[in-house]
Write a structure and sequence with these properties.
Number of domains: 2
Distance between the termini: 85 Å
Shape: flat
Radius of gyration: 30 Å
Oligomer: single chain
Organism: Selenomonas caprae
GO cellular component, one term: plasma membrane
Number of strands: 0
Protein name: Glutaconyl-CoA decarboxylase subunit delta
Transmembrane segments: 12-37
Largest sheet: none
Main location: membrane
Strand content: under 5%
């Protein structure tokens, strides 16, 4: 009959690990090749033209934010925070005219926790 090539477990382990790492290397190369040849990726020209537009859109709402900014300033929100919120909204493609209000959420967690502890003591 046939005899095994080797019965040494260390050699078998090294052969198996070599095969696994070779297969992983080939898979990594295939993934990199797919990223290079990706047909769904937009062309570089479109990305270069689209890149300045969001930056301009982000700057425009900050200047046109007095309506939301004045209401926010009355509530204690600094103009810098309003500018950051406006830039974040503009980065998603929305305009400041779509923002109805900027107001902080109430942070009553500590107060409610203290009340719950006092109620549980009784």
């Amino acid at each position: 009959m046939s005899h095994p090539v080797t019965t040494n477990p260390l050699i078998i382990m090294l052969i198996n690990m070599t095969v696994v790492f070779l297969v992983l290397t080939v898979l990594g190369l295939v993934i990199n090749l797919i990223h290079i040849i990706d047909p769904t990726k937009p062309k570089q020209e479109k990305q270069e033209e689209a890149a300045p537009a969001p930056a301009e859109a982000a700057a425009a709402p900050v200047e046109s934010a007095p309506a939301a900014g004045t209401a926010a300033a009355e509530e204690g929100i600094s103009p810098e925070i309003v500018a950051v919120i406006a830039a974040a909204i503009a980065s998603y493609g929305y305009g400041m005219e779509q923002v109805r209000a900027i107001r902080p959420l109430p942070r009553d967690a500590w107060k409610n926790s203290g009340r719950a502890q006092m109620a549980n003591r009784g």
